[in-house]
Design brief:
Elements: H1 2-5, E1 13-16, H2 34-47, E2 51-54, H3 68-81, E3 86-89, H4 99-109, E4 113-117, E5 121-122, H5 136-144, E6 149-150, H6 154-166, E7 170-175, H7 178-189, E8 197-203, H8 213-227, E9 232-238, H9 243-254, E10 257-260, E11 267-269, E12 272-273, H10 277-290, H11 298-305
Parallel strand pairs: 1-2, 1-10, 2-3, 3-4, 4-7, 7-8, 8-9, 9-10
Antiparallel strand pairs: 5-6, 11-12
């Protein structure tokens, strides 16, 4: 019965503001500085997002950074401009970051949520390299991802869980395919993960699983079979256009939640760059509401996910 009525619950929209695997050369609208990222967070909130997923970047070159000073400025400015927003800080980081650098944000700032990737995997963007032959640095960087492994070992994740729970941070488990679900199940069995958990199906990364509705339905039914429906809440990320909106629509009808944003997709329409994260949130909100679901406010999402509250963070 719960599966049949879940679509009646309010839908949480997460907005991933900037990411660590897109580059300013791809779109001038990607926010880079703490001011730009926090302004985008406020606009996304006004458009209907309850959660913002945050990476930070070196303001000088736009490259992903783990600098805690940049983190502090960004988090504080988001909180100042949109004081009810739920902030989910990445522990995925960016290429070349160590596990220590990736998890530092959880212990230093104790946000309400942090992402936690569940599997070591190929994570590649090398097909994009041909578009940037005139930019030698970016060309070589993208080409190098053909040999890149996104490391998330059991040892890494065990430590991430310890740090998050010590700081009352809710993990958001990123599952790039069925292997991630089985890894999560193992971690629950080992006693590393508290239930109910919140997971996000990340569909369409080169090195992970596909991004059609078939994969989404498969991931959901496998999660239900492996974990039990009462033990998790879930959201979906569709990588690229139009999958961000297609999978969001399917998730909305299935009773799940949705993530959009310039981290995952740069286009509002075919070959038309989105000029802001808010544009993507507004479009997804219209789709969800047209499908008969209401949008959750930050406080409603906070209650649904069992979060500690913005007054208990360390920034």
């Amino acid at each position: 019965m719960a599966a049949l009525t879940a679509w009646r619950e309010k839908c949480i929209i997460t907005c991933a503001l900037t990411g660590g695997a897109t580059f300013p050369q791809q779109s001038k609208y990607i926010p880079i500085t703490p001011d730009q990222i926090s302004d985008e967070a406020k606009r996304a909130r006004d458009a209907g997002a309850a959660i913002v997923h945050v990476h930070v970047r070196n303001p000088e070159n736009g490259f992903p950074t783990s600098d805690l000073n940049v983190w502090r400025e960004t988090l504080e400015k988001i909180k100042q401009k949109a004081d009810d927003l739920i902030i989910c800080a990445t522990t995925g980081g960016g290429p070349g970051m160590t596990a220590d650098e990736r998890i530092a944000v959880a212990s230093e700032f104790a946000p309400e949520m942090c992402s936690c990737n569940t599997e070591t995997m190929n994570f590649s963007m090398f097909p994009l390299a041909e578009k940037f032959k005139d930019d030698e640095f970016l060309y070589q960087l993208l080409l190098g991802t053909k040999d890149y492994v996104f490391k998330n070992t059991f040892a890494d994740v065990e430590r991430f869980m310890q740090v998050m729970y010590e700081n009352d941070v809710k993990p958001e488990f990123e599952c790039y395919g069925p292997n991630g679900l089985w890894n999560l199940m193992a971690m629950i069995r080992f006693g590393w993960v508290k239930l109910p958990c919140h997971m996000q199906f990340v569909l369409g990364v080169l090195g992970g699983t596909g991004n059609t509705p078939y994969e989404l339905v498969h991931m959901y039914t496998e999660a239900q079979r492996i974990l039990g429906l009462e033990n998790f809440t879930w959201s979906v990320i569709g990588i690229g256009y139009p999958r961000q909106f297609h999978l969001g629509a399917v998730a909305a009808t299935m009773g799940g939640h949705v993530r959009v944003g310039l981290e995952d997709n740069l286009y509002i329409r075919y070959r038309e760059l989105a000029k802001s994260n808010a544009e993507l949130v507004e479009k997804m909100r219209r789709i969800i509401e047209d499908l008969g679901r209401d949008i959750a406010s930050p406080d409603e999402a906070r209650k649904m996910l069992g979060l500690k509250g913005i007054d208990k963070v360390k920034f």
